[in-house]
Amino acid sequence: MEVFGFAGSILYIDLTAGAIRKEPLDPELIKKFIGGWGINHKLAYDLIPPEVDPYSPDNKIILGVGPFVGTTVPGSSKIFVTSKFPVGGAFTGASGGGALGIMLKSSGYDHVVISGQAEKPVYLNICDDDVKILDAADLWGMDAVETASELRRRHDPCSILPIGQAGENLVKFSVGQIDNSGTLGQGGLPSVMGSKRVKAIVALQGTKGVKVADRRRLNKLVGEVTKRMMSWHGRNHLIAGGLGGSFLASRGDWPVSAKNMTELKFRTPEELEQYTNFARTYSKSRKTLACPSCPMGDKEIVKIREGRYAGTEFQGNSICSISGEVAFSQAVVQDMPEEGAERAIGRLKRELEYADMLDRYGIDFITFDRLMSLVVYLYEQGMLTREDTGGIELKENWETAEKLAQMIAYRKGRFGEVLADGIPGVVRMLGKGEDLGYHIKGVGNFYEPRFTGMGTMEFASITSPRGSQYITGSNGAPSYNLKWRVEQWVKESQKRAFPDEAIQRIFSSSSFNVGRLVKWTEDWYSALNSVSLCCRYFVIMAYNATTIAALYEAVTGLDMSEVDLLRAGERAWNLYKVLNARAGFGRKDDKPPEAWFRPCKSREKDYSLTDYYGNPLSRADVEKLLDDYYDERGWDKERGIPTPDKLDELGLEDYRTDAAQLLL
Amino acid sequence: MKSKFDIVVDAAKCCGCLVCQLRCSDRFEKEFNLSKAKIRIRRSTKNESYYSIAFTEECDACGICARHCPYEALILEKREVA
User: For burial by CB atoms within 10 Å, which of A148, A236, A447, A607 has the most?
Assistant: First the structure.
């Protein structure tokens, strides 16, 4: 059987032995899991012991791409990494954009499995069959941006996944950046690389091509999707202002959180004016970068063009660079020296410095923010003392952010060691405070349902096996679009081929059951990951299940229906869950942050947990929604894991014995 | 045959999506292959931030790259007949 669209090989790199080998990708795996992320989970199940220490040489880093990578299918650059991550000890399926996927495939690899531990710092250099483990002594100690620049100088054209100091020093909430722009591996990927002494993975442009089954059909479908994207009413704004610009323009009236998520602060008219000036300055200062194949580029370089900082330039993740504005405390812009017209520029510089600092170390900005908010709050409440912090006074300001980031990245002092283990580290040190940390399974939580209501992105953050991750609940219908009518949600669900009987169960005339709906958004996300399609709203809105199934047929030559596509997504998600259940995870870990059950104060009123349409939600209601979620999944409600019967139904018979054992 | 078009390059608009390289290799090689494209997109060595655009000697300015560039970094202009 010839399957098109795949490179056809898995690359195995054993760092302990210095051994490199290549094996064919089994076409049976493709039939069962579609590709990319699904196959990653299968490899992880077979190759990584469930109880392994994330920093043990026996842990593996498994990279994978789906069949659309390397073709012109718009928005198909996604690469996935599966490994056991340190922040919460879960097996993580993480995704990222950028050129790493297309470059690996151009060398002939759909997956790369990295195992063992090198004796001294190395970097991996992959180009066709010429795969080298090279000395990285001169790179060790460099930050992630410096490392990428140096390796690009040596090897361009290539794509680079470097680690910064946070990875080298085993910071549990480190995150990677592909080509300085696409985050990969929230939850500690760089530290797993660091434990293996891998400073970077460099994928050079190889000589292999991707052949597809039906070029004519593919080009026609790609033309249709591209046309929808190019004619989207928000595209010009997106390309000019970037993801950050779009966000900033629409979120001025959103509050920022303060005092460890106990308060929401809305902008005063004066602050709103300053904010608008900042948003304008930001949009004018950026140049768009795009992932391979994508007409909706949302990566960027920001160069300050005016005022005293003119010429200062940053390349980073756009979400990161606006983080202080959109969802986070305003700590980093508290003490800026600029006034008047210069203030917007000063603010831009400060925001960018903040993002740049964390990107260079390789620290996850969401968890960092939540961690900093927590320790400042504990300090103010007298639960942490100067003795605990190594003599540092903690305040919500830029100086504290700088000091803490440095302590974390280098694990400086006893407090640095504690912080580098993330929010669970602080709780362990204090022996209390579990109810104060704003995290799920160790990963800092992003969205705030006491303000937005419990939409799919908020609920999905609870059920994601890897820890808080809102994106599994978005996929074309993000719940940060507040107060969509029920009909709009139904329409989105139909676009994604959710079955009619499920739609009947999920939607009433005035609301929806978010627990049941999230089951389907996760399956959809899982299917998109398996073909390697981006799930950003402005990309995936140009697709529906029918188009994706047709594209899969055109690329691979294998039959695919909408139902099969979603089913393959469900299969991969179930395997992802069994992978984690085997490592001890279950319903006991699918816990929302305790803060959600306390009111959040603002000047005008208190905000309490509600559903998406503003109806109050109690703790018991959330538990009931979790019951509904497991029920919709066909899983054991009490344990929150797949049943043997469910696995049989999905063609995952090989895993039924393990699942049965877990349910004993 | 000599192309009737000129490809006008505005590298500052290039976002690095590589659609031009993919389209070019698809047309001439019947596969998506960056290394076989007759147009080359590189990160500029002078500045980490931007891209450079170059064409190989084999390029006959057929214009497939420009027709599919989503960012107007490549524009097709009809050649003036002398």
Answer: A148
Q: pTM for the full model?
A: 0.96
Could you tell me which residues come within 8 angstroms of residue B47 by beta carbon, excluding any fewer than 6 positions away? none
CB contact under 8 A, A290 and B23: no
ipTM for this prediction? 0.95
Among chain A, residues having any CB pair with chain B shorter than 8 Å are: 70-72, 99, 102, 106, 149, 152-153, 156-157, 205-212, 215, 219, 226, 229-230, 239, 287-295, 297, 301, 303, 313, 315
Measure in Å the smallest separation between the Cα of A127 and chain B Cα atoms: 12
Q: Determine, for residues B31 and A149 on separate chains, whether the beta-carbon distance falls below 8 Å.
A: no
Under an 8 A CB cutoff, do B32 and A156 touch?
no
Q: What backbone torsions phi and psi does residue A342 show, to the nearest 5 degrees?
A: -75, -15
Distance CA A414, CA A652 (A): 46
Spatial distance between the Cα atoms of A217 and A75, rounded to a whole number of angstroms: 18
* Per-residue pLDDT tens over the stretch A4-47: 999 999 999 999 999 999 999 999 999 999 999 999 999 999 99
Averaged pLDDT for residues A473-498:
84
Residues B40-65: pLDDT tens digits?
Answer: 999 876 665 579 999 999 999 999 99
Q: Report which of B50, B49, B28 is spatially closest to residue B38, judged by C-alpha positions.
A: B28
The most distant pair of C-alpha atoms in chain A lies apart, rounded to whole Å, by 69
Pick from A363, A354, A229, A208: nearest CA to A290: A229
